[in-house]
Amino acid sequence: MNAQSSLFDGDFSALTRRLQDDAAGVWAVHDRACERFEAGEEVYLLSVGDPDLATPPRVVQAGIDALHKGRTHYAPGRGERHLRETIAGIETRASGKPCDPDEVVVFPGATNAIYSVLACLVDPGDEVVVAEPMYIGYEGIFRALNISKAGFALDADAGFAFRLEAVKAAITERTRVVFINTPGNPAGNMIGESELRELAAFCRERNIWLVCDEVYSMITFDGPHVSLRRAAAQLDNVVVIDGLSKSHAMTGWRLGWTVSSRLLADRLLDFTSSTIFGCCQFVQDAAAFALTNDEEYIQGVREEYRVRRDYVCQRVTAIAGLSCDVPPAGMFVMIDVGELGVDGEQFADQLLAAEGVSVLPGIGFGENCRWHVRVSLAQPISVLRPAFDRIARFVAP
Ligand SMILES: Cc1ncc(COP(=O)(O)O)c(C=O)c1O
């Protein structure tokens, strides 16, 4: 039979179809900018969330050494013991509460950790309560798992502050998980210790899981990050997710983890054993090295992003029609463009077309960011300076 005579007519799964119309539109400006950049045009990419900083050379060397030692085989499903001990030690010190290495599960990145946690906790049709604005990446996970999202608004008039009452009001009988992110993407907002404690207790009383994405925990400028584990009085309904992508500029290594009750960690092991089957040994060795030899490096990273944050905020403030809150943490600044009479999407489109600067429209993160654009700090001042010269020229030609 001629193999080309008929087209294969197999259908895709419902999951695949749900993902097909994922939030791709949000990235349209960024994708266009990347195309122009790759074609050799002078384009300033302020839309990326991937640190421009290099993975620390000593960490790279630790990975190479591990490869040479033959650390290229299957790893334990929970993660290598020495990495989990390192993470448990950090958690114990940060929270003031003992963390057992068996409460830690290692994943190829925080994204996979979030997917796995929600897959273990939520059935299709159940509700996850989540902040708006939220990190765009959550959307695909919710869709894949067929989870309903119930948003609660961060206070856009107060630097996107977290309001406990707003979360409580969003919880219904169908709520299985409250999902929070501190420090937050895109707004860099931080949730305070007393609010975390009260929320944890509130959720526990109602048999609701409280999951906290803390991947920006090490990038704080004005005061230390408070982890959910530190704040919560009881830990059995609490899950913390963290990783090395942002703090150690290791996005491509794919390394994240969860800290939860032993009970959930065992279920996560079942799940990851049938979906991932262990993370790379040499990546885990490099990760353990990174986490034990990083104090000076992290201080330097924090200082670098703080300088960039201050620079961006000062440039924004100097441009009539633009304004921003100064984020206390994270890798982004949200700029309010509403006074110019355009929304974030129009601003981003026109800015790219006119000046070759790409920023992300706020609407992708939530309705209450319609009038904002997100600028990434993952570019050096040598890029931010000419980019903001162009933004200034675009706003006031
Ligand atoms: C809030 C948040 N969580 C998770 C991730 C993804 O982290 P990872 O690279 O470890 O999958 C990102 C990446 O931008 C993020 O901003």
Task: Give the tags.
single chain, 397 residues, alpha/beta, Aspartate Aminotransferase, domain 2, 2 domains, 7-stranded mixed beta sheet, 4-stranded antiparallel beta sheet, 13 strands, binds pyridoxal-5'-phosphate, PyrdxlP-dep_Trfase_small, pyridoxal phosphate, transferase
* CATH superfamily (homologous) name of the largest domain: Type I PLP-dependent aspartate aminotransferase-like (Major domain)
User: Radius of gyration in whole Å, from Cα?
Assistant: 22 Å
- Extract low-pLDDT stretches: none
Q: From the coordinates shown, what is the CATH architecture of the largest domain?
A: 3-Layer(aba) Sandwich
Classify the secondary structure makeup into a structural class: alpha/beta
**Count of structural domains:** 2
Order of helices and strands: HHEHHEHEHEHEHEHEEHHHEEHEEEH
**Share of β-strand residues:** 5-15%
Give an overview in words.
47% of the residues are buried. This protein is an alpha/beta fold and 397 residues long. It folds into two domains: 14-54 and 296-395, Aspartate Aminotransferase, domain 1 (Alpha-Beta Complex); 57-294, 3-Layer(aba) Sandwich (Aspartate Aminotransferase, domain 2), CATH 3.40.640. It contains 14 helices and 13 strands. Helix 4 runs parallel beside helix 11, helix 5 packs parallel to helix 6 (137-145) and helix 5 packs across helix 10. The strands form three sheets. Strands 2-8-7-6-5-3-4 form a seven-stranded mixed beta sheet, with helices on both faces. The protein is globular, with a radius of gyration of 22 Å. The mean pLDDT is 95. Bound molecules: pyridoxal-5'-phosphate. Pyridoxal-5'-phosphate (PLP) is lined by residues 49, 109-111, 135, 137, 181, 185, 213, 215, 243, 245, 251, 256. It is an enzyme of class 2 (transferase). Belongs to the class-I pyridoxal-phosphate-dependent aminotransferase family. GO terms for molecular function: pyridoxal phosphate binding; transaminase activity.
